[in-house]
Amino acid sequence: MSAVETVEVALADRSYAIRVGAGLIDRAGEELADLLAGRKAVVVADETVAGLHLPALVRGLTGVARSVDALTVPAGESAKSMDGLADLLDRMLALGIDRRTVVIALGGGVTGDLAGFAAAVALRGLDFVQIPTTLLAQVDSSVGGKTGVNTRHGKNLVGAFHQPRRVLIDTAVLDTLPRRELLAGYAEVVKYGAIGDLEFFQWLEANGRRLLDGDADARRHAIVVSCRAKAAVVAADERETAGGPRALLNFGHTFGHALEAMAGYDGSLLHGEGVAAGMVLAARLSARLGPCTGQDAERLAAHLSAVGLPTGLDQVDAGRHWTAEHLIGHMVKDKKALDGRIVFVLLERLGHAVVRGDVDRAAVSALLDRPRAA
Ligand SMILES: O=C(O)C(=O)C[C@@H](O)[C@H](O)[C@H](O)COP(=O)(O)O
């Protein structure tokens, strides 16, 4: 067993540990024994992950929890819907859950957000554990308690803050993750460097490829640094108060969520791909407004592009030519928007982000307007 590192999320009586190491799914019984003793466990996994990691997890938890049931949900963003939630709750209730039942989300961001929201509302709130199996979920969505589903009005528009009781990050599962998914998660890793840690961004410029190519030390380092950064922000501003620091984690997401909504959650644009293109748009908007420089914005774009992530509208709209009007129509529904004003997370410089509610819509339109190909 290789080393396991612990990152604490300090939230008074809702504090929890994020455990990071290779092989943690195999050791889940031991890792979760204190939480599960005498209680029912319901594992929720998506269909792809169920085929890969569910048997080992159920084996490990059997005899530790009072009973272990497993439910599967479809893979992909479209599962994160009101219908998907209703179906999952129905199946959980049919299992005879009680208020001591622990829900365990095994999978990527979609599974964690959906199962976490189901745990938040079933019997008015059940304990839950996150076992994220994608890089994106490991460095971002499994930490911080944002749970929810998408609606036809946009991404994550219905949900709840519901903190997990523990997060188990098994870095070995990344070995079976498709490259495209790995890259999408890498966008969120880069985000931490861009918004608050220039030194980490520089490290990623030098080591990002090692991480993507499977170097275990580089992976663990990037995951631990990312989780530490997220844990600090969440501890400072758990519920994303207006003007509070948690909104900084939304860098790239105002544009990114609009891109995802335009794409229709059909798998053609992954969340992390939308965030990558969204971060570049936000950085270029920052450079237009200052004081961020064009060099900083293009340095971010260059790194994302070098690893193979999309950095422009043309790369994400697959010839559908989304207009500024289309995208702004989605951005005004963003949860950060206040009194009809879109709130952006912009860069003051690479490594330092700020929240801005005073951005002129004409500047956003000018950034998004593209000449139509003849
Ligand atoms: O945890 C947060 O806070 C974030 O904003 C992290 C984001 O990377 C993540 O995608 C989050 O789920 C987006 O939240 P939303 O409030 O913009 O829906």
Sum up the structure in keywords.
374 residues, alpha/beta, Rossmann fold, Dehydroquinate synthase-like, alpha domain, 2 domains, 7-stranded mixed sheet, two-stranded antiparallel ribbon, 14 helices, binds the ligand O=C(O)C(=O)C[C@@H](O)[C@H](O)[C@H](O)COP(=O)(O)O, NAD
Fold and architecture overview:
Its cofactor is Zn(2+); NAD(+); Co(2+). The protein is an alpha/beta fold and 374 residues long. It folds into two domains: 5-176, Rossmann fold, CATH 3.40.50.1970; 179-368, Dehydroquinate synthase-like, alpha domain (Up-down Bundle), CATH 1.20.1090.10. The chain is 47% helix and 18% strand. The chain is built from 14 helices and eleven strands. It has helices spanning 28-36, 47-61, 82-94, 109-121, 135-141, 179-196, 198-212, 216-236, 253-263, 271-289, 294-307, 313-316, 324-331, 361-368; strands at residues 5-9, 16-21, 40-46, 67-73, 102-107, 127-132, 146-151, 154-161, 166-170, 344-349, 352-356. The strands form three sheets. It has a seven-stranded mixed β-sheet with strand order 1-2-9-6-5-3-4, sandwiched between helices. Strands 7-8 form a two-stranded antiparallel ribbon. It has a two-stranded antiparallel sheet with strand order 10-11. A hairpin with a 2-residue loop joins strand 10 and strand 11 (352-356). The protein is globular and about 60 Å long. The mean pLDDT is 96. The protein binds the ligand O=C(O)C(=O)C[C@@H](O)[C@H](O)[C@H](O)COP(=O)(O)O. Ligand LNCXM5UN binds at residues 140-141, 144, 146, 155-156, 188, 240, 246, 249-250, 253, 335. The ligand O=C(O)C(=O)C[C@@H](O)[C@H](O)[C@H](O)COP(=O)(O)O binds next to helix 5 and strand 8.
